[in-house]
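Example record

The entry below shows one chain as it appears in the dataset: sequence first, then structure tokens.
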Amino acid sequence: MKVKHNKKRNTAFVYEALIKEATDAIVKNDIERKDKIVKIVKQYFEPFSVLKKDLDCYRSLYETRGTAKEISEKIMKEVKLSKRLIDPEGLFKQQTNLIKDINKDLGPDTFNNFVPNYKTLATIFQMFNDSSPKQQIMLENQMIDLMASEEHKQEDMVPIDNIVYNSFVKKFNEKYGDDLLKEQKELLTHYITSFVDNSIELKMFLNEEIGRLKERLQKAKDIEEIKSDGSMMEKTNNVISKLDSYSRETVSESILLTVLKTQKLVKEIYSDVSVS
């Protein structure tokens, strides 16, 4: 008998729905709501928690693409073992508490958020919960084929900027002009999900990006238009100093905005000139 998908008991769906809800809160500058979501995520998905272990089982499958079929089969084998080691009663209890807190603090509409890989998450849920041996094997083979495929299904190919950034991009463009650059979108991606891992990936990306921007600005000082203009040279040095000071500060929205504007500045500087 095929198990009906219960998205509220699908750990990965709930996690992705919370990320989407946090994104909307950031876009709307609703700090209070964002903080509530951060608190819930940190409480229930902390390292070694039963929900984090369950989420890792899902992610090992739906985040894997383009691997050899033999590797996909090995991953599937390890995931099944890890899933069996999770206490089902403990998992159910934590899911119940999580659902209760989401309904109380955020509202039931959180579960109606659009999650682009919903069908894949539903397939994994059924694979983890289906009691029919035939259905189990069919679902496992379906996931293995998907993990081994180079191309994502259409549900997984929806550009994240079309889903996540529409409002943010619109507001940013109204204030600063052109569409966001590739590096700006990448920075925003890390920022939006930074509260999940205590900003570890954001800090790593930011350190590398600031280093790149400082290097490009230092080289820009050799451009004749900048070198011959005392004011432009001073402003360039000021930006470099400001970026340098960020290595000693906690990541904030003010820093984020400055780096976004600097990314655009560097792009404009090098759009019309060639500097080695």
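Notes for this example: Residues 160-269 form one domain. DSSP finds 15 helices and no strands in the chain.
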